[in-house]
Design a protein that fits this description.
228 residues, six-stranded mixed beta sheet, binds zinc ion, Metallo-beta-lactamase, Chain A
């Protein structure tokens, strides 16, 4: 079997605006998060949505899912007839509502199958030949930086031909993150905060310092989701 080395392309990542990360295990493309502009960025690099083995959404915040509707609309308009594998956290209201709206408008003319995988902590799944494991993350719905309620959020650990990629999505620090990123060939880590939030013990994201420490546990670390 031909051996492929893994590559990660951060198509775009900026807190509050959009994030889209493409993981390429040779010819197998897996998209993690689909913020606004994802379709445009995929087409620009020659990976149209038809070529995606799966789309994995870490959580339902708009900067991570706003581009999902565009992907679905494009596949319908292109008369795609294959399977669209969609992984997201169980209980993710935003993704369920978005799919419902898509079916409500177009149920008679969707020629492809959307295979849904709502996952919980430590669920496993095979997408093509890629092994996916979901890890529960610690993230919150927030307004103006103030935490409101916990958001269903997952990180994903992807393994293919003994190569591992760990992608945190948005998360605050918790000790299990060390295990999550350890020995990954590539770890993609939330690094939104410049400093810890003052006057609160509830964090919505990792600080750059926390992210740098975690990145040091992987063979290669990529910090994402900085504020503009
Ligand atoms: Zn978020």
């Amino acid at each position: 079997m031909e051996r492929h080395s893994v590559e990660v392309e951060v198509l775009f990542s900026c807190a509050g605006i959009a994030t889209a990360i493409l993981v390429n295990f040779g010819p197998i493309h897996i998209l993690v998060d689909a913020g606004d502009g994802t379709l445009r960025d995929l087409l620009r690099i020659g990976v149209p949505p038809q070529k995606l083995a799966g789309v994995l959404l870490t959580h339902g915040h708009s900067d991570h899912v706003a581009g999902l509707y565009a992907l679905l609309g494009y596949l319908r308009a292109e008369a795609f007839t294959g399977v669209f594998n969609l992984v997201y956290p169980a209980g993710c209201c935003e993704v369920e509502a978005l799919l419902k709206a898509f079916y409500k408008c177009y149920s008679d003319t969707i020629g492809f199958q959307i295979r849904r995988y709502p996952l919980k902590d430590k669920d496993t799944l095979k997408i093509g030949s890629v092994h996916v494991q979901s890890w529960k993350m610690l993230h919150w719905h927030s307004v103006a930086g103030n935490p409101l309620a916990p958001a269903p959020a997952l990180g994903f650990r992807l393994t293919y031909q003994a190569q591992a990629v760990a992608i945190t999505g948005d998360t605050a620090f918790f000790p299990e993150l060390v295990e999550f990123v350890k020995d990954a060939d590539i770890a993609v880590i939330d690094a939104t905060l410049d400093t810890p939030l003052p006057g609160t013990n509830t964090y919505v994201h990792l600080t750059i310092e926390q992210a740098q420490k975690l990145a040091g546990l992987a063979r290669r670390g990529i910090l994402v989701h900085r504020k503009s």
